[in-house]
Amino acid sequence: MLYFENDYCEGAHPDILKRLLATNMEKLPGYGTDKYSDSAKEKIKKACNCPQAEIFFLVGGTQTNTVVISALLQRFQGVVAASVGHICVHEAGAIEYTGHKVLELPHTEGKISAQHLQEYLQTFDEDANHDHMVFPGMVCLTHPTEYGTLYTKKELSDIRAVCRQYEIPLYLDGARLGYGLASQSSDVTLTDIAALTDAFSIGGTKIGALCGEAVVFPKRSPAHFTTMIKQQGALLAKGRLTGIQFDTLFTDDLYLKISKNAIQTAARLKDALRAKGYRLYLDSPTNQIFVILEQTRMKTLSKSVTFSFWEKYDQTHTIVRFATSWATNMDDVDALIRLL
Amino acid sequence: MLYFENDYCEGAHPDILKRLLATNMEKLPGYGTDKYSDSAKEKIKKACNCPQAEIFFLVGGTQTNTVVISALLQRFQGVVAASVGHICVHEAGAIEYTGHKVLELPHTEGKISAQHLQEYLQTFDEDANHDHMVFPGMVCLTHPTEYGTLYTKKELSDIRAVCRQYEIPLYLDGARLGYGLASQSSDVTLTDIAALTDAFSIGGTKIGALCGEAVVFPKRSPAHFTTMIKQQGALLAKGRLTGIQFDTLFTDDLYLKISKNAIQTAARLKDALRAKGYRLYLDSPTNQIFVILEQTRMKTLSKSVTFSFWEKYDQTHTIVRFATSWATNMDDVDALIRLL
Amino acid sequence: MLYFENDYCEGAHPDILKRLLATNMEKLPGYGTDKYSDSAKEKIKKACNCPQAEIFFLVGGTQTNTVVISALLQRFQGVVAASVGHICVHEAGAIEYTGHKVLELPHTEGKISAQHLQEYLQTFDEDANHDHMVFPGMVCLTHPTEYGTLYTKKELSDIRAVCRQYEIPLYLDGARLGYGLASQSSDVTLTDIAALTDAFSIGGTKIGALCGEAVVFPKRSPAHFTTMIKQQGALLAKGRLTGIQFDTLFTDDLYLKISKNAIQTAARLKDALRAKGYRLYLDSPTNQIFVILEQTRMKTLSKSVTFSFWEKYDQTHTIVRFATSWATNMDDVDALIRLL
Amino acid sequence: MLYFENDYCEGAHPDILKRLLATNMEKLPGYGTDKYSDSAKEKIKKACNCPQAEIFFLVGGTQTNTVVISALLQRFQGVVAASVGHICVHEAGAIEYTGHKVLELPHTEGKISAQHLQEYLQTFDEDANHDHMVFPGMVCLTHPTEYGTLYTKKELSDIRAVCRQYEIPLYLDGARLGYGLASQSSDVTLTDIAALTDAFSIGGTKIGALCGEAVVFPKRSPAHFTTMIKQQGALLAKGRLTGIQFDTLFTDDLYLKISKNAIQTAARLKDALRAKGYRLYLDSPTNQIFVILEQTRMKTLSKSVTFSFWEKYDQTHTIVRFATSWATNMDDVDALIRLL
Asked: B37: closest CA among B238, B262, B193, B208?
């Protein structure tokens, strides 16, 4: 069986396990105050070109979103996001559980636009009844989006400008950030993201780590952020686990290097799909490929390869997702291509 | 520097790292549905002598408490716990953040009594105004307690009987459960705990794992518990990480075997402290030793050994804690004894 | 100035004030346990033809929605409602503040359909990932809707059937229920509503009372509902205030009688608007009339009459709302008509 | 039957009902923006000698506490209060429902001391682990307390000084404030309270109103407080109801005048109790009298007079409470005295 169902089916990059092994019996203080967490933070700051950034390590993606968003919002505020955003659909109401509404914007291939955002915020401001409504208190983008698409630097800058105008912070959920940075189609760097956002995450779980997301506040972190992490049950006793992983990922550009493998394997697969006449649902430049499959074709394929059912396309077609990752073997891609 | 500050300063037991390495590139499904998580659950059921138990793996101790407690309570209920319980003091209000009050009972050396519990529940029941009060909806014990003490089987059974009478579930926070099971002073087995509680945790973080707590529901789990885990941002994408760790810990009794090391090293230290005329604050039968130190003595010691400041005893004395663990070296204990 | 801005601009029906005055110095027990509250409940049960109903009195509409919805939902569930529903837009995130998501359905003139509901629930059920999503735990209808429209008995029955099939309760927000019952276009009676829902409210604030909404559970109320009311700060010490008001409103059909005035005055206004060539935005059969006004016309009118700005229609037109109530004077309607 | 069970068993002061009647058919804007609410605010500002105060009207006491406290706290903070405070015991966990812990201090006759507060805050500050604890974010006093006792101006000033030192706001729950102000034993005026606190409430429900508490922020209100009131379902549509009541209560000193009746009737009763050899549980200078009754005596009395069971004193005695109010008739007091 070939496995293209998701980008978190393997363990960790071997270098990470080596480092965990090498440091295993060192006695280190807890809760992220160890030297490896410190070192990882320094390397990330350098990678972001942002020496004043404050950085924290959390365990998973939904956890990161709920902790960051509930820390940045005032209690009468909600978070603005694309209606297909992960926080809207697939986090089991984690944001609402902290008392906040997700304010949904329309999207194009997973992305919101500065114009829609501007209209939404202006309409809210001008609504004479807005004291009876949820205040938009921040914006959350996913980059790459749930459809694998990417914001351009221009699009991020425009959204940033609107956030500035309305004085609300911009947060970028980067659960798959490496795959965005490694895409040739992207003109956005880590430095850009640090310059354009008030908070963003650097996903480890889907890019080489056993677990772990780095949360970066390029300007300043919310006061008592550690206490809020603890309050949500998200503070890791052995902070070394995430510290060592991110220290490894940000040594010698490992994070970007291994991200490229996902892009290259996805590109090969995409080319082959096109060459064989398959219809792509959209043209994702990262590691997720969405294909419209005829249903009997889908059934046959599913006997020898795993992929994700995404949504019904029409009566006889289904949209499915093939995902590659840092660990995807080009041989497996070729084997899949032969099956197509 | 000798390190006796806590029981989570090392990484993982070497067998765990070996297993993580051996299985690293296997492609496994996410969210705890992998075969190693399944295998770990089977082994824990066997160890508990409880084939019908339902088991889940979470990442940390505070997370486990907040997820389990908020899943077991109705929204108008609170959780009864000893006033020194971890959930009362050192979880940054995680229980309250989920909307529930912690109803505090008096304690003796960290333990509540069946009698106090009975009085509390009866008083509540008889109070004509109790519709204006928080309903006691469950009981949470810590075992070993925050003072390293242990409930006897008789004490647990008595508390269990009161819970039955008032039809509220009993939850046992076992963040250090292995050290309780391994103590010679204890007459309580895993089978007893499974028989006497409605939910309990088996701590991995402090006993050999990089992270991870097993949550056991001996009878049945709350409906849609996985969704509630997700809702609190506590669902690990790579469930293999906790699955493999617990599978290793529950292979060939590793969990109990390594727990014994903490007990033996603590016992040696305790004997030496007594022999040298130190006053113990209380007689803990597990891996935490609480000593009353004169302050200049404390200062001198702190130059060559780390320990935890617990609380002020009087103007000239302080209570400090020495903790051993699965990883504590007997040579380090001897070195510490020479310093005393 | 003529006043058609809303249906809560006057105080109470004079009979209510008379009763408050007559009973004022009687010494009565608190928290809704007084004889007038009891009497009001009996009368409402009779009006609903539902002797086993359990009834509670709350103070306001948003309060009623947040208390009832958060009492009926499990913590991993959300409430399904029309995307223009009051709970979605104009309650400042009150539902989310209690930890629950509002799951929005498309609407037609404010109403959801059994078909859309069925599709939504079926899609959720069939989604293999639904454990990572918010479970639909109840349905909330507004009747009359925010656009003044009414569900037919057939529509309610169909929605009811879908709720039954998926075993989730149906709640009807009746903040303006009297105006729905009094409308000639309606084939829905209080008896129907009690038979077809699991909970509904009977609005007093907009129909003759100073404040107060009756919450009716036709089958059974959630356990410890009073405690949950208290927990949300919604339990009135002097329950007599709502009890006496509802006892008066449900004596000699006062509630329905005074509701009819709103319908008759609205009907006269609607006829006149049509006769004079105004375009109605939709044809509301209750006390709210939505008209598309050209902007200079709107400005002129606003000098002598108050109404609500609803939303922009196009560059030169605006949708405005005229509301009548139990207290609207037909002379005022005629004066308004002369201005049109 | 004589009625001394509580201070909210009658309706409203007749002047209030008269005003409600006189203004009943006036058309007024909603949500507290009417002219009577404005006028009431002006009168309260004058009574507090605090022209810059911001004032809001809420409906009930528990509602007021939960709305004000959750608006003043950051999400990682709790509220410090006496362990017998209403928010600790008799509000069904309303504070915890908003996500915040109540941090309990010991009390003397219902009052906390500046010294205990100082020790608590200092201990927290000095605790090296306090990032894992709930931050004390404000102090809540009840005045008069649940035992009818009063803070002196010196005590309030001392507590105020500690709050200043630790930069946390001071909130005074004045559900029975009038009875405190009217007591001859008190040296505290409304002006003092406005000068010494950051927020306080002026109870109407127990002092002449049908419902209603005024919330006063002497310096400034939390940003978007109205939205937070709405978010908790506490915004009254017909704000005139509370506005007119408070406007009446603060016209010609009515609030203080009627409060005095409660003090005078309580004083007569207290003197009689003492003269007849009854033991008072404590010496309350306000409208609540706590007496230690032998149980057969209690039973006999309860046949002809209502009072509140407070708590068991010993095997043969019970503490009961007699409450007077603005509406208590001196004849009833004399009748009660004859029964003693």
From this structure: B238
| Residue (of C311, C339, C328, C174) closest to C264 by Cα position | C328
| Distance from chain centroid for Cα B138 | 17
Residues D36, D27: Cα–Cα separation, whole Å? 12
D76 vs A75, A135, A228: nearest CB: A228
Concatenate the DSSP letters of all residues of C42-87 into one string.
HHHHHHHT-TT-EEEEES-HHHHHHHHHHHHS-TTEEEEEETTSHH
Name the DSSP letter for residue B132. G
Do residues B326 and A24 lie in contact, with contact meaning Cβ atoms separated by under 8 Å? no
The token pair at A194 is 């640090």
- List the beta strands (DSSP E) in chain C: 2-3, 54-58, 77-82, 102-105, 135-142, 170-173, 199-203, 213-217, 279-280, 288-294, 305-306, 308-312, 317-323
Q: How far is CA B259 from CA B251, C24, C98, in A?
A: 14, 71, 42
Mind listing the pLDDT tens digit for each residue in A215-247? 999 999 999 999 999 999 999 999 999 999 999
Alpha-carbon span D272 to D294, nearest angstrom: 17
Do C101 and A99 lie within an 8 Å CB cutoff? no
pLDDT at B85 over 90: no
DSSP D96-116: HHTT--EEEE--BTTB--HHH
Whether the link from the prior residue into D136 is cis, omega within 30° of 0, is no
Residue C147: C-alpha distances to residues A178, C142, C286 (Å) = 48, 10, 9
C135 vs B132, B135, B224: nearest CB: B224
| Residue C296, Cβ density class (10 Å: 0-12 exposed, 13-18 middle, ≥19 buried) | exposed
Q: How many CB atoms within 10 Å of residue A167?
A: 6
For residue B196, give Cα distances in angstroms to B102, B155, B157, B191, D41. 22, 11, 7, 9, 59
Distance CA A117, CA A100 (A): 19
Distance (Å) from the C-alpha of residue A61 to the closest C-alpha of chain D? Answer: 22
Taking alpha carbons only, the member of C219, C217, C213 closest to residue C246 is C213
Helix (H) or strand (E) holding D214: strand D213-217
Are C75 and B230 a contacting pair at CB < 8 A? no
**Nearest Cβ partner for D131 among A75, A76, A226:** A226
Q: What span, in angstroms and rounded, lies between the C-alpha atoms of D129 and B66?
A: 19
Q: What is the pLDDT of residue B312?
A: 87
**Rounded distance, CA A200 to CA A194, Å?**
8
What is the distance between the terminal CA atoms of chain A, rounded to a whole angstrom?
Answer: 14
**Whether the Cβ atoms of residue A235 and residue B62 lie closer than 8 Å to each other:** yes
SS3 B127: coil
What contacts C46, CB < 8 A, 6 or more positions away? none
CA atoms of B178 and B202, how far apart (whole Å): 7
Provide, as residue numbers in chain A, all residues whose Cβ is less than 8 Å from the Cβ of D221. Answer: none
| CA nearest to A72 within chain D | D75
What is the residue-averaged pLDDT of chain B? 97
| pLDDT tens readout for residues D185-214 | 999 999 999 999 999 999 999 999 999 999
List the subunits that have 3+ CB pairs under 8 angstroms with C.
A, B, D
Do strands C317-323 and C288-294 pair parallel, antiparallel, or not at all (unpaired)? antiparallel
- Please tell me the distance from the alpha carbon of residue A239 to that of residue A259, in angstroms, as a whole number: 24
CA distance linking residue B143 with residue D221, whole number of Å:
46
A117, A105 Cβ separation under 8 angstroms: yes
* SS3 (DSSP) at A74: coil
Here the ipTM equals: 0.97
Please, are residues B94 and A232 in contact by the beta-carbon 8 Å criterion?
yes
Which one of A95, A101, A127, A308 makes the best mutation probe of the C interface by having the most chain C beta carbons within 10 Å? A101
CA distances from C15 to A287, A295, C21, C210, C254 (A): 71, 68, 10, 12, 9
